[in-house]
Design goal:
Blueprint: H1 14-30, H2 36-66, H3 79-111, E1 114-116, H4 124-138, E2 145-147, E3 161-168, E4 175-181, E5 190-192, E6 206-210, H5 211-216, E7 227-238, H6 252-265, E8 269-275, H7 280-290, E9 297-300, H8 338-342, H9 354-360, E10 363-367, H10 376-385, E11 389-396, H11 404-414, E12 418-423, H12 431-443, E13 447-449, E14 456-457, E15 460-468, E16 471-479, E17 491-498, H13 501-515, E18 527-529, H14 533-549, E19 555-560, H15 566-577, E20 581-586, E21 603-608, E22 613-614, E23 618-621, E24 628-632, H16 638-642, E25 644-650, H17 654-669, E26 674-677, E27 683-685, H18 695-705, H19 717-721
Length: 722
């Protein structure tokens, strides 16, 4: 079955599949088993995800409609049809989120002495305090912008929260609209009020009122001599997709800096959110003033911009959060910690460099269960300080603002080592941060490059070249996640530390491809996009088809963020029809229908949404009992296979391959955070029928002590259900 012959009825629209993923995120907030402050977090994630979806995906579809493009997607929908379907799917989800905030989250938090009050609920003492706070901390920074013939409709910035005030001149009776921007970037969204002002007994732990209400109920002070007839909240989302024409840009950094300025200002309005209480005539004024179509208007029965619920996680209420799960130093690296040697925790004779460990055997890392600081950061820090290290090369896609890795690279350059960093300036919504890092690295003597023209460099790789006994030896790290200290604690990611010569030589040549004019077309062990990855993955699937047809069985297990590529979807259908058993663990978008009679009978899809963002990619192929396993940075999406630089590495050591297979099986058997994808494309959350299997929770201990061997006699949770 060729990709072009894929029946549109057998392909799920990617935008709708993404909404289904975000619905599973929202379900974490609605799940009463989720601790209260974690419910707030997942609701915030749902909103933040949705903002980015509108800024990029919806904006792109709207641009296509405006350009008169009617080309159908792989599922047969035109851009206009997709926009209508998106709106229809989103409206009930937004209603669910608001009901949860108003009727569940606020109520339950109140039972735990956390009061999120409306301004109208404040007692006299609280009101006096908040009004004084307004006068001293808010009023001076507000700028009321009138709308009349002398004042054109003001520009409303992207994702800003605003108050629309209807102001009446008592002399003329003229009604006018004014806009006031809520200063949510410089002040907390929920303004804390001293708890001793509360009438509650016992005294609450925390009391707060939304910032926009503080502004709204004091807004009359901005219009002395006028009558404020009403105040209403609204929020705007604009096109923020940063389009860059690399070939036309003489200096990519300058082009991106200019593009970022444009993004901050914002493109066309793609969504207007208004409080449900806003009168129709005010809505009409806003829509006219910002050229908003009816389909882009979203009435919200509750507070706007719930991504600000993230702020509640700072409350010191550990009982309302997930139990902290602290990572550990990988056992193989326990004696390779320079800090332990320096503080006297281990003796000189007990210490061994991280390079000596990696020379003996490959090291498989799984974050956040394995600490990023004592593994990846330790590797780069020792490379920076080791006098035998000649050079360090690495890619930086997203990194933290106070990155120890950046500091290590600068230190290495100052020590006279050859240091190269590929900083991906086109990492969406991290461009500004990466520009600043690039400038700092360059000023410190690091060779900084920005990747291959026309491609985004998404691969996560480090190459360390070390002089040992008059020869050079390469050490590598190949990972699935970013070199980011912060996200390494929030995302599950895998990494491989290795001194295998073929991997080292592959990375040498890959970096030459990234920094020079190389047109490398083959690699020894790595599958590299856009050169060999698609062909390699398709070849591995076709081999399983061949084995199944020969009577040897065929089996594929794969874990990834998204499965979108039509050619891969078609090939997996072909594999299923040949008898290959296919088990997929897909966090986000999945455009394939599993379990369809005669099409995908042997395919099952599991999605896991847990406290950590599942971000690792693992690809396992049975190969007639001689399993091959790969890990890397790429999903099965057209952009990863064709338009990005990606690297997927084989895992060579049998023990590590088995460990990854056991990891896949644990995810497949999860019945606490897992969802089964049904043959109609919908998802059903699993419920434990016997023992609860919570993969992320169990991995805290299991990864340290070794995952249990697979017992083929044990039935999986899904088999029990059947």
């Amino acid at each position: 079955m060729a990709a072009r012959s894929l029946d549109p009825d057998l392909y799920i629209n990617r935008e709708l599949s993404w909404i289904a993923f975000n619905q599973r995120v929202l379900a974490q907030a609605l799940d009463q088993r989720t601790p209260l402050l974690e419910q707030a977090k997942f609701s915030a994630i749902f909103s933040n995800n949705l903002d980015e979806f509108f800024m990029v995906r919806v904006a792109s579809l709207k641009s296509q409609v405006e350009a008169g493009i009617s080309t159908a997607s792989a599922d047969g929908r035109t851009p206009q049809q997709q926009l209508k379907a998106i709106r229809a799917e989103l409206l009930p989800l937004l209603e669910q989120q608001q009901k949860h905030y108003l009727n569940s989250l606020k109520t339950e938090l109140n039972k735990h002495a956390v009061q999120l009050l409306d301004y109208a609920q404040l007692n006299e003492g609280q009101r006096l305090w908040i009004d004084n706070f307004f006068q001293t901390a808010i009023f001076p920074v507000l700028t009321p912008l009138a709308v009349d013939p002398a004042h054109p409709f003001p520009f409303v910035s992207n994702l800003s929260l605003n108050v629309g005030a209807l102001v009446v001149d008592p002399d003329s009776g003229q009604r006018q609209l004014a806009r006031v921007k809520v200063p949510q970037k410089i002040l907390p969204r929920f303004v804390a009020i001293p708890t001793d002002l509360s009438d509650s007994d016992p005294e609450p732990v925390h009391t707060a009122v939304p910032l926009e209400q503080v502004v709204a109920f004091n807004i009359g002070l901005l219009f002395p001599g006028m009558t404020v007839e009403g105040h209403y909240f609204f929020r705007v989302t604009r096109d923020a997709d940063l389009e860059l024409r690399d070939l036309e840009a003489d200096d990519l950094m300058i082009a991106i800096e200019q593009g970022l300025h444009k993004r901050r200002m914002g493109g066309e309005v793609v969504r207007l959110e208004v409080a449900n209480q806003m009168p129709d005539d005010v809505i009409e004024m806003l829509m006219d003033g910002m050229s908003v179509a009816e389909d882009d208007l979203y009435r919200v029965d509750g507070p706007l911009g719930l991504d600000d619920l993230f702020g509640l996680l700072s409350l010191p209420l550990e009982a309302l959060k997930d139990e902290p799960l602290n990572g550990h130093t990988p056992p193989t690296l326990a004696r390779a910690q320079r800090g332990m040697l320096e503080d006297g925790s281990i003796k000189e004779e007990e210490f061994e460099s991280i390079f000596s460990v990696i020379r003996r055997r490959d090291v498989l890392l799984h974050h956040p269960y394995d600490l990023f600081s004592t593994s990846v950061e330790e590797f780069i820090n020792q490379a920076a300080d080791d006098p035998q290290v000649m050079g360090i090369k690495m890619t930086l896609y997203r990194t933290s603002k106070d990155s120890p890795i950046i500091a290590a690279l600068i230190r290495a350059a100052e020590h006279g080592k050859q240091v190269m960093a590929l900083v991906e300036l086109k990492a969406r919504f991290d461009e500004d941060n990466n520009i600043q890092w690039a400038k700092q690295l360059e000023s410190s003597g690091v060779h900084v490059v920005y990747g291959v023209i026309g491609l985004k460099t998404h691969t996560k790789i480090v190459l360390v070249v070390r002089k040992e006994k008059q020869r050079l030896r390469s050490y590598v790290h190949i990972g699935t996640g970013n070199y980011n200290s912060k996200t390494s604690k929030l995302y599950t990611d895998l990494g491989l530390l290795s001194a295998r010569p073929e991997l080292g030589q592959d990375l040498v040549e890959l970096f030459n491809y990234l920094t020079g004019f190389s047109k490398q077309q083959s690699f020894r062990r790595l599958l590299v996009a856009p050169v060999t990855l698609r062909k390699g993955i398709e070849g591995l699937i076709r081999r399983e088809i061949k084995h199944a047809k020969q009577g040897h069985g065929g089996h594929i297990k794969a874990k990834m963020n998204s499965l979108v590529d039509p050619a891969i979807v078609a090939l997996l259908y072909e594999a299923s029809q040949a008898g290959v058993v296919i088990e997929l663990i897909i966090r986000g978008m999945c455009c394939l229908y599993p379990g369809r009679e005669g099409v995908s009978d042997s395919i099952r899809v599991v999605s896991i949404i847990g406290r950590y963002l599942e971000h690792s990619r693992i690809f396992w192929f049975s190969n007639k009992g001689e399993a091959e396993v790969y890990l890397g940075s790429a999903d099965w999406m057209p952009r990863n296979l064709d338009r990005r630089v990606e690297a997927v590495s084989p895992v060579e050591e049998p023990e590590l391959r088995e460990q990854l297979e056991r990891l896949l099986n644990l995810y497949l058997d999860d019945n606490r955070g897992a969802w089964d994808m049904l043959s109609d494309g919908s998802f059903s959350q699993r419920k434990p029928s016997r023992k609860t299997i919570h993969s992320q929770l169990e991995l805290t201990d299991l990864w340290r002590h070794g995952l249990p061997a697979t017992n083929t006699n044990d039935k999986t949770e899904s088999e029990i259900a059947e």
